[in-house]
Known about the structure:
- The chain is of the alpha+beta class.
- The chain has one domain (10-42, 52-80).
- It has 1 helix and 4 strands, in the order E-E-E-E-H.
- The chain has one helix at 67-80; strands at residues 10-16, 22-25, 31-32, 58-65.
- The protein has a 4-stranded antiparallel sheet with strand order 2-1-4-3.
- The two termini are 18 Å apart.
- It binds zinc ion (ZN).
Amino acid sequence: MYYVPDDTEKCGYYECEECRERFLDVRIASRLVCPYCGEAHDMEIGPDDEMPSVKESAKLLEVIEGEDVEKYDALLSLAITGGDYSWI
Ligand SMILES: [Zn+2]
């Protein structure tokens, strides 16, 4: 398991609207801060910008449960290393 612990029975499947990265997280919320790009921007915010907080750019696509957790985790992990995941 790459994204979530081995005994995870339920997790959220997210896609970031900024960098298009897809990932799993044990936290289930309608939106999350993207772990790939979400925390990289806060040093560049100037005094005129209205949103000093980190943007929650990752959107929940699906809630994954049971053995699908392991399946999605394996597929997404493969995607990172160059595997074919186009059928998801
Ligand atoms: Zn992102």
